[in-house]
């Protein structure tokens, strides 16, 4: 770690020079939020514990101190948050190259032979160092402040979780990430509908089965003698046909490279087909046709969206593979290669691969999924986990593979039930105990491949599904995955408490009747946890 620190120090110094002019602007922007944050958490903090003599300011400031740390420490070291949910220099590589961060954090300028592509996310040592020790681990159990006590946490959280807006059934757990010790639990072992917090489990399973550096490859293969060109889907949910690829695998690039390879062979006309046989079973989710999810196919471009959006619900094409193949045909035509109307097929073992494009590393794909609560990516990762572990690549096989991977990691699965990777299935069941255990595992020193689970969580008031929440609360302090279905509201993530300890939490509510009120109740609870010393 000392060698690593020495290696990145010049890069971080350079990054500091780049972001220092931005710091003044970031500080000015965050100051009103800090003031609102202090006001929002003051009532909860007052209930936490009696102030020690001469320390009153620590409690009345509440989460404002953490917000100030965000503005001056985190922003100064790492830069502001970008649109995809990553801090600009959470990656030392990105900081060293004065890049804007996010999904595209590659290793320098593009060249004609080697276009710029995203590099794997590192073990997020800089992220965890900002939350705990200098060695990238979370704050030690023996720190001066000590962990919050169960009784103090109960005094703070019980009244908030008793809000009628949270419905008849709810569960909660708070765990010290450094020790893995549960500090608070209320129905923590009760299995409830998790909604989109299921994606945390999907992310952990995929990363553990495939590895953070894994990439999904789409290829064009030419069958000998028949001049049949097969577009082979590799299950890349981030493949794009848009003119600006932003670092994701480009169908246009694949067509250009394929056309070039064909022309070298003197081929200007082909029979075009497409292969989706990597996946099996029904493509349409059990909830039916839905704007939140396209039919799940091994070949898809831009998630089958019918507009220029990149996230959120929108009408989808009915056959993503055929849609992608038609676009591919159009791109080939623009390069002088004529094709037949594409149809389904399967590439043989004799086919010659002419060109390939690959996704960013799985670490980046996972972060995008969690930040935007992307159902298409989640279902793709469930099936890719199945492929990697020998299960059938279907909804059922993906669910089986997820559970098996979590069991291998020693996670508490009692009562858990998986039916998909996205959490859209109302028959999914998870416990607050499992959700917090997943987050603790993602922060464990012996599982650096799981760090994207933490770095991909939406940031309160700034990114993803939390960008419009906590504007009067713990903005920038809470990082959490949201979950919403009719009658279900959930929230699971991490928070740095008043003493600088990293806590994992999970709140699940079922039987809610007012989603906005339930969401606000969960946000108030997380805000109180952020402002808590709780000794």
From TrEMBL:
InterPro entries: Beta-lactam/transpept-like, Peptidase_S13
GO MF: serine-type carboxypeptidase activity
Biased composition, class Basic and acidic residues, residue ranges: 98-107
GO BP annotation list: peptidoglycan metabolic process; proteolysis
Any one Pfam family match given in the protein's UniProt record, by short name: Peptidase_S13
Family indicated by similarity: Belongs to the peptidase S13 family.
Name of the protein described by the UniProt record: D-alanyl-D-alanine carboxypeptidase/D-alanyl-D-alanine-endopeptidase
